[in-house]
Design the sequence.
């Protein structure tokens, strides 16, 4: 029997048809993959099923019972759980408390009193690998653990149908494997799973069937092979492969130094996040820092940007940056596009971009804007849309565009590939190449996606457990690190 039957789903936002006549069946013990470019309507489909948004037309049946129009807590009670694209933990509560609240969403007050709930919450935490961090607060957790917590919350009440939105984004190869195992286990237990992710390989490995969307509509449905071979899917979603361009590392080495990080250490309480890190970036160079989650990449960038205190020296050009405010450092020309995006959610796309370019003379600003619209056409057509309502990938594009609006001397990109469709990665990759060819920009890139980080780089640093453990040319990286890291 079908656990879930969706028919003719339509969702409009003003003039935009985000979901246009989408229907599918989902059986018990089955994983249905939902793929498509950024903004194609995948997350919206999940919200319609979950009752977070109400469809303008169509039907959703859970075990044969119509649920359209039900509030989302009722749909949750009837057996649907969702893992959101972005983690939304309660920061004042511990991991255990967050999971308990998911178990008892209707009875906050009984949180401490209910026996059995504590045991059940621990059991769930164990099953997703959170057993050791039960009493930590979400803010102190590594990224993968936050995703685990979202997973734990979604399956807390043993839902029949589990909706999982981009579980792999930001996870490393090994972590993706672990999460894939968790999802397979859900299927083995008889759950019906709807899975969205841009990690095509992993979705292909998991899904029993795949449905591909584009501009709100279904473009293909079938087995993984059928859908991946589909002409439209290839063109609008998968794209080609990233091109590696030849670098002349030696030439870049002789250019004047722009950024020097010397003997930098950072502590968060007792935990050491960076240990005696040395790194330099020359003018016009493209340097990639690769490393697993929690290796210290973001901490390194935050130290450079003046966002966390550190011991040691960070110098930009001929002056040390210690003691300067983040704002002064940004005015100096170091612009960080953070992993967390930090867009102004209530402002429009255009307002976010204008803020980025506010220091530029009008003409330069217009020029920069035109260039960015060429790079990310979706941003041009969505200038008036409130940033918070953009799809995950659209927000990522806006964050990168806003950083570029500032015309930085040194652009720091922290995990720019997060949540981007393969075809957009290709565009971004080409854009970075063009940027290098046509401007004097210098780029420091943090990535765990080695396939993206290597082709562009003049030099690569490998960060592991707070330390730089290797430095060299990208061509040598694969040879030295072996297949294991990739
Ligand atoms: N409240 C809203 N107002 C206006 N437009 C919206 C709103 N919510 C979503 N949209 C738009 O609807 C489209 C579909 O969004 P959705 O989040 O479903 O995309 P997605 O397929 O999940 O993309 P991604 O892979 O980038 O996460 C996007 O273009 C988005 O900007
Ligand atoms: Mg989405």
Sequence:
């Amino acid at each position: 029997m079908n656990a879930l039957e969706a028919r003719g789903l339509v969702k409009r936002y003003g003039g935009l048809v985000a979901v246009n006549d989408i229907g599918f069946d989902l059986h018990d013990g089955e994983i249905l993959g939902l793929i498509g470019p950024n903004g194609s309507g995948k997350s919206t489909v999940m919200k319609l099923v979950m009752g977070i948004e109400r469809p303008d037309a169509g039907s959703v049946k859970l075990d044969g019972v119509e649920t359209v129009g039900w509030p989302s807590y009722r749909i949750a009670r009837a057996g649907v759980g969702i893992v959101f694209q972005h983690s939304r933990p309660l920061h004042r509560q511990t991991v255990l408390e967050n999971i308990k609240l998911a178990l008892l969403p209707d009875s906050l007050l009984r949180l401490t009193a209910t026996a059995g709930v504590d045991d059940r919450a621990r059991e769930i935490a164990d099953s997703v690998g959170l057993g050791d961090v039960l009493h930590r607060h979400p803010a102190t957790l590594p990224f993968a653990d936050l995703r685990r917590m979202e997973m734990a919350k979604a399956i807390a009440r043993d839902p029949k149908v589990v909706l999982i939105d981009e579980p792999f984004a930001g996870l490393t190869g090994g972590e993706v494997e672990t999460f894939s195992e968790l999802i397979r286990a859900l299927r083995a237990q008889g759950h019906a799973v709807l899975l969205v992710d841009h990690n095509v390989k992993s979705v292909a490995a998991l899904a029993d069937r795949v449905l591909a969307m584009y501009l709100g509509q279904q473009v293909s449905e079938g087995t993984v092979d059928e859908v991946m071979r589909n002409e439209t899917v290839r063109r609008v979603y998968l794209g080609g492969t990233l091109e590696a361009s030849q670098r002349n590392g030696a030439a870049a080495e002789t250019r004047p130094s722009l950024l020097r990080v010397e003997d930098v250490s950072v502590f968060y309480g007792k935990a050491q996040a960076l240990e005696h890190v040395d790194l330099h970036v020359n003018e016009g160079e493209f340097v990639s820092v690769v490393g697993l989650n929690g290796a210290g990449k973001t901490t390194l960038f935050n130290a450079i940007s003046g966002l966390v205190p550190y011991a040691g020296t960070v110098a930009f050009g001929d002056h040390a940056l210690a003691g300067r405010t983040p704002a002064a450092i940004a005015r100096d020309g170091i612009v960080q596009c953070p992993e967390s995006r930090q867009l102004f959610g209530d402002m429009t796309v255009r307002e976010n971009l204008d803020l980025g370019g506010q220091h530029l003379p009008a003409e330069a600003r217009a020029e920069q804007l035109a260039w960015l619209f060429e790079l990310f056409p979706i941003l041009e057509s969505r200038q008036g849309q409130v940033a918070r309502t953009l799809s995950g990938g659209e927000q990522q594009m806006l964050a990168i565009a806003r950083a570029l609006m500032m015309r930085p001397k040194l652009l720091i990109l922290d995990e720019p590939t997060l949540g981007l469709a393969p075809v957009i990665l290709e565009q971004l990759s080409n854009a970075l190449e063009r940027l290098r060819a046509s401007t004097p920009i210098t780029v420091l890139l943090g990535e765990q996606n080695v396939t993206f980080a290597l082709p562009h780089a003049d030099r690569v640093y490998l960060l592991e457990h707070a330390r730089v453990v290797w430095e060299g040319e990208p061509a040598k990286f694969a040879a030295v690190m072996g297949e294991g890291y990739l």
Q: What stands out?
A: The longest strand covers residues 2-13. DSSP finds 19 helices and 20 strands in the chain.
